[in-house]
Amino acid sequence: MIELKNIEKYYANKGVKSYILRHVTTSIKQGEFVSIMGPSGAGKSTLLNILGMLEEATYGEYHFMGEDVTAMNERKRIELYRNHIGFVFQAYHLIDEMTVAENIEAPLLYKKIPGAERKSRIADVLDRFNMVAKKDLFPNQLSGGQQQLVGIARALVAQPSIILADEPTGNLQSAQSEQIMDLFRKLNQEENITILQVTHSEKNAQFGNRILTIEDGVIKEDVSVSK
Amino acid sequence: MFKLNLKIALRNLWKNKGFSLINIGGLAIGLTCSLMLLLYVNYEWSFDKQLKNFDKIYLAKLNLKFNGNIATTGAVPYKLTGAVMEEIPGIKRASRFYVHHGSKLFSKGENKFKLKSLYVDPSFIQILRYNFLYGNEGSALSKPNSLILTASTAKKLFGTENPIGKSVKWDNLKELQVTGVIEDLPKNQSIQFEILQPWAFFEQIDSSVKTSGWGSIDCAALFELKDNASVEQINGLLKNFVVNKEPELKSYIYEPFLFPLSKIHLYSQFENGKVVGGGIDQVKLFAFLALCVLLVACINYMNLSTARSEKRAREVGVRKALGSSRQTIMGQFILESLMLSLFSMMIAFALVEVSLPYFNNLLAVTIEINYSSYLFWTVIIGLILITGLLAGSYPAFYLSSFIPVKVLKGFKGSIGTLSFRRALVVLQFSLSVCMIISAIVVYNQIQFLKNRPLGFDQNNMVQLDLEGAFKDPSKTEIFKKELLQAGAIVAASEFASPFTEGGTITGDVSWPGKPATDRSIINYRSTGFAFTNTIGAKVLAGRDFSPQFSADTNTSVLLNESAVKLMNLKKPVGTIIHWDNEPLKIVGVIQDYFSERLGKIGEPTLFYYNVKTSGVLLLRLNPNQSLTTSIEQIKRSTQKFNSAYPAEITFVSEGMQTKLQSERLLSILSNVFGGFAIFISCLGLLGLALYMAEQRSKEISIRKVLGAGLSDILVLLNKDFMKLVVIANVIAIPIAYILMTNWLKKYDYKIDVNYLPFLLAVVASILIALLTVSLQTFKVAKANAVDALKYE
Fold this sequence. Notes:
Chain A is an alpha/beta fold. Helices cover 35% and strands 29% of the residues of chain A. Chain A has a single domain, classed as P-loop containing nucleotide triphosphate hydrolases (Rossmann fold, 3-Layer(aba) Sandwich). Chain A contains seven helices and ten strands. Chain B is an alpha+beta fold. Helix content of chain B is 50%, strand content 18%. In chain B, the strands form four sheets. In chain B, strands 1, 2, 3, 4, 5, 6, 7, 8, 9, 10, 11, 12 and 13 form a 13-stranded mixed beta sheet that branches. In chain B, strands 18, 19, 20, 21, 22, 23, 24 and 25 form an eight-stranded mixed beta sheet that branches. In chain B, strands 17-26-16-27 form a four-stranded antiparallel beta sheet. In chain B, helix 2 packs antiparallel against helix 10 and helix 2 packs antiparallel against helix 21 (661-695). Classes of the chains: A alpha/beta, B alpha+beta. Chain B: It is a multi-pass membrane protein. Chain B: It comes from Pedobacter insulae. Chain B: Keywords: Cell membrane, Lipoprotein, Membrane, Transmembrane, Transmembrane helix.
């Protein structure tokens, strides 16, 4: 599903290149649950952003579902991630002025999905996440865990094939954290959604089936998690 | 503390150069506009107020019945001042003054000039207290052949030598003696002249002056009241003054009253005998305009400053966390805005100085900055303070209200303040749209008046005064023949007075079927033969005066359309009417033409043949010959026939040009300042766009991540602004409509206010706003979403 070949990312400042990522080559298959780990500043988030097409690599090849992302124009790229990628953020990034239901609806609007189907999908997602009662609340009326649930619901409602999560539980207490990770595992196993998460927590990484460890922009380790 | 604040303020201005530039630029333009307008308002306001005793000086006005309405004129009977001085207490001095139509020739050797002279009583110079450079107030007007010159007139005639006692030839007839030279008159004085001559001289040259009755009103009169006199009391006594002398005038009302000289310039419009306005309306309008432009500029500053609040929020938070009080922070922001307003004022000042000559030229005024005037500096400092405080108060209150913990945790401005700023932008845009619509309507009306058929052909038409040798009609006749033969002109006719100025009126015309109570007043003008041909007017019935009919020189008259309508004549040609009880036969009807006033309905006018009393000669130039050749020929012939006088040939079209002066002024000012207001408003909108974009950068990024395209984001952001502009339009349109229909009321001929100016203003304002906002939103929409989301 994802093929990375020799991905490099650096910022040039007065002729000095400071590398974020070096020679990253890997591939991720449909249905994997990958955790990216490593110390702060190692380049985990940058890698995730490149995978999510929010940033461009300075150098290297990136194939997403067989298509060359580096050669794509912006519209095509937006089209691609509209249909295939869902994002989950550490800080949830819900739109404060919108209710829970409206937040979940937003990506569907951009996918130009007709009103009736939007309604049914939102109802479906709300139902699945047990948030029907909270659908008219605003983000600041919810707890952190609940906000992140909305964030995931929003990522899921567009029926993506891959979810990119940047420290999804970084702001949460352990109980809530576990709940979210359980949810990811369930999605991965039952719906075969590819999940890529950046995390600091060893424990969270164990929920997945593969761990990529990055240090100083280089992939140090690539191991499967044995159950 | 103050020094530190000042340093920080300067540093902040320097650090954000772009922002400071927009802010200073906006404020400077706003201040320039309002300074300019205030200077103009001050100029208009200062009229006649430079006289030390201006509050004691009054002009006589007279109410009289005029075609069914009460008209108010500045002309009074010759006898009025003398009788009033004798019979009404409380008056210190009184003087008549007589204003000529046109000017008279004054010559000293080869220096020949047509100059504007007034005939005045000796008390005139005591009332107005001119500064004498030579001679003195007491004796300057004691002899009939005395002359008082203004300094520049003296320089024209005599150069640098002392002119006292020297003689000047008047109208090529009489030698007069210079008895005084006064300082040049300030431009902002209503009574203007180049030469003063004693009333006694006027009585010498015109014997009818002494014998003229109460019914004829020919001169103006100036009164100076005693210190304790009440003008109400005097006006009460004046009310029936003339009518008591001559009861038959009762039916014409004839009520004189005193009106302050200092008000004459701005309050010149009377209705039903009461003052209703005049130039003051325009002055008020401009003062209001100045205020609006300044307000728009201040709103701008508020918007831009608060837009930057995100950047300043952290600073405020840290300062508060370090223990700074709210007052200190407010002080700093106010200080910053005061500095900006000071810089802006300096730029505005330079701009005003640079553009003042153009402005003066454009409006035909002479406005100067009086640097020694306390008022000027007070206004300048006042403007700086007001602008600084007004513009700085809101940002200061808003920014200093941040709660440090929240700010430091990455707080974004609250929504409540945004709606306030939205209201400000709506206000700004409403004002600007109002100005645009007004500018368009005023322009359309001017074009309409300009393009309306005048009823005569103003091009290729010149006039010259009949004076000197031309006083002899037979000489004029030869002169005309010579020009016709030379091919310089195709037609010529004498006319009563300068063609584009007003003339004489009478109430003594009667016609078959005239009701006994009818007090209609009719214009009368003397002409020569071939009058209609010369001016290019249309004869609707009958014929023009012609040498073939001997009766034309004494018993024939022409009427214009309006006069025929007034007299309700079915078959005007051949009808006998009476004027001063003399029977006259109507031989022709001329279509109404408009040479005296534009935009008004035609006034009933009677034309009669009399070349002796006619004051000017109208010439229709030969269209098949170049203008310069014709003019050269006319000049040469004039010199030959009338060598004592300078050949002054004036174009009628030039006279017509001056008719729309005040309309043109309004149009220019509303255009220029409306344009600036729109420009500043756009800066304000840019400020708001900046703010919104910053405010919503997170939201926009999330939306982008969720799959929103560039166009989605642009629509999302612009929609909000367009809503504001549309609301502004909705507010502005009815206001502009009411204002404009009111303004158009004073014209008899006017455009219909249709939807076009409104549509234009709406489209223009939306387009301009869209462009401005898109400039900013495009940048935000294009920005990388990650940058905004990365470090939360």
